[in-house]
Amino acid sequence: MQNRIYSGRFIVLSALLMVCGSVSAAENYTLTIKEHRFEPEELEVPAGRKIKLIVKNEDSTPEEFESRSLKREKIIPGKSQATIFVGPLDPGTYDFFGEFHEESAKGRILAK
Predict the structure, then answer these.
(1) CA angle (22 as vertex; 21, 28 as ends), nearest 5
(2) Does pTM surpass 0.85?
């Protein structure tokens, strides 16, 4: 009975380590929202790898990072930041925009 408990704990611990390892293995990239624009507008990332996208909103108003091709959306309150995990991505171009200021807040991720 006690061996089953230890075996179960080992499996859970192993799964947690795998999740933590994959998250910590993600490379960090930063996008800044300033005056309702993304900087940089184009972000090159490695294809086939998970990335950690840090989106800093320097404006005083909220913005929503949205990408249909990445299947991600996240509201970022003014003067704050959010973390979005993306990928691994196939090589290609992935557009994103700020839903609250779609006319000016646009960009793309190039996975190479």
Answers:
(1) 105
(2) no
CB-CB contact of 23 with 84 (8 Å): no
What is the DSSP pairing of strand 27-34 with strand 51-57? parallel
The token pair at 5 is 């408990």
**Residue 41 phi, psi (nearest 5):** -75, -25
3-class state of residue 28 by DSSP: strand
Return per-residue pLDDT of the chain as tens, 112 residues: 666 666 666 566 555 555 555 555 789 999 999 999 999 999 999 999 999 999 999 999 999 999 999 999 999 999 999 999 999 999 999 999 999 999 999 999 999 9
**Cβ contacts of residue 9 below 8 Å, gap of 6+?**
none
86: tokens are: 């993306």
